[in-house]
Amino acid sequence: MLIDAPVRLVQRQLGQSLRSRVAGSDAPQRAERIWSAEGERWFTPSDPIWRVQSDASMFPAGIASLLLQSLHPLAMAGVAGHSGYRGDPWGRLQRTSGYLAVTTFGTIADAEAAIDAVRAIHERVRGRDPLGRPYRASDPRLLGWVHVAEIDSFLRAHQAFAAEPLDADEADRYVAQTAIPATRLGVIDPPTDVAGLEQALEDYRPELEATDAARDAARFLLLNPPLPLAVRPGYATIAAGGLSLLPGWARTMLGVPLPDLLAGLLARPLGRFGTAAIAWGMAGLAERRPSDA
Question: CB of 191 within 8 A of CB of 175?
Answer without folding.
Answer: yes
